[in-house]
Amino acid sequence: MTKNDLDKDHLETLDRDLDRFGSLKTATANVSRPFVALSFALIFIISAGVFSSLFLGSFDNRIIVIIAALLGAYMAINIGANDVANNMGPAVGANSLTLVGAILIAIIFESAGALIAGGDVVSTIAKGIIDPSAMQSASEFIWAMMAALLAAALWINLATWIGAPVSTTHSVVGGVMGAGIAAAGLSTVNWGTMTKIAASWVISPVLGGVIAALFLWFIKSKIIYQKDKIIAARRWVPVLVGIMAGVFASYLAIKGIKKIIKIDLLTAVYIGLAIGGVVWLLMRPIIRHQSEGLENRNRSLKILFNIPLIVSAALLSFAHGANDVANAVGPLAAIVQASSTGEYLSAASIPLWVMVIGAAGISFGLFLFGPKLIKVVGSQITKLNQMRAYCVALSAAITVIVASWLGLPVSSTHIAVGSVFGVGFFREWDTSRRMKISRAEKFEALDLEHDERKRRKLVRRSHFMSIIAAWIITVPAAALISGLIYILIIALM
After folding, report:
1. What is the 3-state secondary structure (H, E, C) of 124-144?
2. What is the model's pTM?
3. Span 313-339, mean pLDDT?
4. Where do the domains of the chain lie?
């Protein structure tokens, strides 16, 4: 064997060893990444407990409140991981935002919404789900809230792990209901409120889906299917942006700034009409300038929707932070009040330090675990572009306003994901309709193409079924877990 042969064998062996080392390095990175995120989450939860201890002074129940703060931080992380994806998913799926950009915007606006406009008062027992007077003592109430908080967090954690966007509001409701039943029996539950919540399982996603589909139909018929798409866009895109501005102005007036000033629905609508009209006038020259030189094709139209879509995602995050932070810290605030004063029958104010834990936890959860659900909502249910994602965001805001007017307790998760489904199913229907028209015009030439299109589904049925199933079982699952935790706590005590 020559020296060249030996050198060649040596190099081949070295290459194989380097390949093995590279594979080992990749595998190690993939395995260790989840543990890094879990480690940071654990550090944050412990820090929240230490942070809470600074504000407790000479509380008799310091340990209980610190434990509740730990659970509140855990709950907030799970809300960030699961719920915020509904606001940012469509913009990421449409490629208007990168994943990193979406996370940064969401962190800023979620925190701002929670700290600036977060709800300052919550019911002692989440939104009147059970009768607090049925509890025999403050300690019984505290353990019930503790069980509810832990159960809701565990359920959302499980849903995030399997890739199902679920309602954090419904998780808290189920947790409170289960602990209440375990503590005081079935009679303590406000079944009228629970009936409304059950109805919202259907109303929220259907209404969101229908509104999103109607807006997509409007965009297709008035802009996309026109011969001169650019002229049509110059006419109608400012109208759509004006509608978005008006809707979000009303949305934020009703939901986003209630801590600063309370505005009734009619006044909020007038505010929305005024701001929408002003934005429409301002957008006309802007859209005309943006559309100059664009080709008469669908790809050109997407450019005009990029900025409105990013703005809508940011505003949805602000409103979400203002409203849903109470899901993480409402039970914690009630525990703080009951521990410090023994009062649990009246409304509980949320201290600023409790709001900080909620806002920071949501941001940490989004940063550490949010990308998985953002990808599910943004691209794995149906393919979204800028116009479809815009319809989803606009539908989410409109549906919340309509639901508020009707007095229905709806879920932002159900609305947003229902809107994505609505857009996907409308695309299936519209594609099938247009193929039938084409086949009627061109007869047998398009038979094979039509059959192929008919077999294709634009909404992934596996995601559709798994998400619907997760929605249906959220309240009973959280209730069952909460009841078992409460029973375990009482047995240990």
Report:
1. CCHHHCECHHHCCCHHHHHHH
2. 0.80
3. 79
4. 41-492
